[in-house]
Amino acid sequence: MVHTITLRKIGGSIGAIIPKELATRQHLAPDDQLYAVETPEGILLTTVDPTTQAALQAYAELAKETRAAMAALAKV
Fold first, then answer.
1. Where residue 62 falls among pLDDT bands split at 50, 70, 90?
2. Is the CB of residue 18 less than 8 Å from the CB of residue 24?
3. Domain CATH for 34
4. 0.85 exceeded by the pTM?
5. Residue 1 forms part of a structural domain
6. Are strands 6-10 and 13-17 parallel, antiparallel or unpaired?
7. What sections of the chain are H helices per DSSP?
8. Nearest to residue 18, comparing CAs of 8, 9, 10?
9. How does DSSP assign 57-73, residue by residue?
10. Structural domain range at position 22
């Protein structure tokens, strides 16, 4: 679903106004943090920290690669 986000001047910054129904569905509240990720298509606003997501993906790949070794160590 596509929503229109309105930008407003807030002091020396620009704030994004998120529609109430979208904020409710995404469980967003005032003072929550969103991460702005620049993509080739534009800006992606997400609740997922890209650094944490990359670390979890790296762990998953490492765990998959070392599964047999960890199983052998668990038997010792």
1. confident
2. no
3. 2.10.260
4. no
5. no
6. antiparallel
7. 20-25, 50-65, 67-75
8. 8
9. HHHHHHHHHTHHHHHHH
10. 6-75
* Cα–Cα distance, 33 to 45 (Å, whole number): 10
Which pLDDT tens digit goes with each residue over 6-42? 999 999 999 999 999 999 999 999 999 999 999 999 9
pLDDT (0 to 100) of residue 1: 80
Instruction: List the structure tokens of 64.
Output: 């998959």
As for how many domains the chain has, the answer is 1
Range 25-40 burial, b when 16+ CB lie within 10 A, else e: eeeeeeeeeeeeeeee
Any domain includes 63: yes
- Distance of alpha carbon 26 from alpha carbon 15, whole angstroms: 18
Closest CA to 43 of 52, 35, 33, 51: 35
* Surface-to-core class of residue 18, CB atoms within 10 Å of its CB (0-12 exposed, 13-18 middle, 19+ buried): middle
